[in-house]
Amino acid sequence: MSTWLVTGGAGFIGSHLCEALCARGDTVRVLDDLSTGHRANLPDGVTLVHGDVADPDAVLEAVQGVDGCFHLAAIASVERGITDWFGTHRTNLSGTIVLFEALRRAGLQVPVVYASSAAVYGDCPTVPISEDAPRQPLSAYGADKLGCELHARVATHVHGIPTVGLRFFNVYGPRQDPRSPYSGVISIFCERISRGAPIDVFGDGRQTRDFVYVGDIVAGLLAAMRLRPAEAAVFNLCTGRPTSVLELAGHIAALAGSALDVTHRPPRAGEIRHSVGSPARGRAALGLVDPAVLSDGLRNVLDWMAGGR
To answer: Is residue 283 in a domain?
Structure first.
């Protein structure tokens, strides 16, 4: 039995990870300021440290005695990065450095598995996107996630802290709040289509994304913690399967048994046209099985919503 720190553990992805860790009998400590996460998301037995990931004292307290850290705390919003550039930077990049520094101050060389993002690639002209593709972020969020990867190299090579970064593509699943301004398109579409409400599609709807189920993200996080690499490794977590926005809406409508009512809006400035990752390297290194089929994941989301969440 091990003791793990999960930053952002009361959030969408973090709470699913906490469930998996608790299910195998591990001890779980969560650091979360509950700005977007919810205490109710946490399974029984988890210790919550209510604090800010960019607060050095709070993080130093939280890392005491842990066997490793899953670092998921972030403000995952491109729009918020525009309106509150420094505030999001403080959480997304400074918070990561604070975590590494807390481990250094505590004399701990325990592994850190952290969330990076497909946003580090920007508008990559070649798909599927491999880990070797140029990193040219177009958002403050993507720039901060790239910064996390660079500082993880420092943590590993200078301070002896093993790190693995996982570039999440478009994650979806139960517990992703459709009312949140940071929510993904799937939770919004599922909520609206299931009750017969119209949906907004920006542009022609033929832009494609790589939608990866939260259960596959959790499997990747757990596998990455077992690696303990000498290098600061970084892998994609994705499916390699492109799905257009209109295809997605059609799948959800068919599963929900609802008519599809689409309102086309003008394209959003700077939106990436195609974002589909190559899963091969990460799948091989982490020993991952084939990812969930989109229709199965969508059905889980709809069932969760129908159950009153």
So the answer is: no
